[in-house]
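Preliminary data (for renewal application), NAP complex.
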Amino acid sequence: MSHDTSDRNLRILLASRPERAPSAENFTLEEAPVPEPGEGEVLLKVLYLSLDPYMRGRMSSAKSYARPLEIGEVMEGGTVARVMASRHPGFAEGDIVLSYSGWQRFALSDGTGLQKLDPARAPVSTALGVLGMPGFTAYAGLLTIGKPKPGETVVVAAASGAVGSVVGQIARIKGARAVGIAGGPEKCAFLRDELGFDAVVDHHAADFAEQLAAACPDGIDVYFENVGGKVWEAVFPLLNTYARVPVCGLIAQYNLGDAPPAGPDRLPGLMRQVLTRSLTIRGFIQTEFADQRPAFLEEAAGWIASGQLRYREDIVDGLENAPEAFRGLLEGRNFGKLVIRVAAE
Ligand code: NAP
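Predicted structure:
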């Protein structure tokens, strides 16, 4: 077996459920021996771990589309890993695979769900970002639900992130006008100057709602919702008749707990607008569009090769830094697709 037997596994477990923002106490770092693969199994060494907003939901026991993690379980997560030893006919030592190994350095797999990656095709970390789940989420949600047409205005929040950056660029590829909402001048400059967004608005600005209205003089035809909260409040009055709203995420709300906020009931007013402006507001989880994945991979690879689709990764070294990096993701401290480099390639 080629792994160094002096290696130890490091695993990060859910220690307790956060009520609001996660803290260091919600995680346990635990050392364990490197496991030995049984017949039909492979031993994986994790190279990259993807950190994604959905992990906040898995830490909570609130009912959702996926089962919550149990206390004491290894934190879930998509990973890129190297096969260190194989007793599985489909995989050889040295293969690089996309796996779902979670927040740990080593893992066993029986091969279920593993996908081989070709390091000559693209940097393997992109399988967690622009060519992975977040890129696919942007593609499927925007094109299937948002259906942008040439000349229309598409607005996306968390626009410099893994999903949002792809949404805005695909909107432009389809001939629409892309307006990005992001936190801070650096992210806004990146969207305008590097990714070619047509307009950008900083949601930290005191007059954010006015700036957004000025950036959308013809109203909004597609709003790709990643955030919720005050961003949604500013967007909603600008939606045009027949506007489409793919509801992908509500990250501004993930740390707020489950109780509804105090205040007047504004649902009747919202429903009246849905009716009178013929709005389509449609939530989705990317897995429902799984049959579009081959088409996405082909198109996205072509757009990357032609320079129409660019990406930025925010790579943090060391698995032990995952809890703090994850806290930062929920506060906008990441700049680009957040990935933990667990081991050198
Ligand atoms: P990301 O955009 O790379 O990172 C999260 C970003 O959200 C932060 O950088 C920050 O950007 C913004 N943010 C965080 N807290 C915020 C707040 N309170 N108010 C406003 N903005 C805030 O993350 P991602 O992976 O691309 O995910 C984006 C969204 O897509 C999330 O809501 C996620 O849950 C959702 N998602 C859904 C699916 C699905 O199947 N439905 C799949 C993947 C992702 P700024 O600094 O620019 O504010």
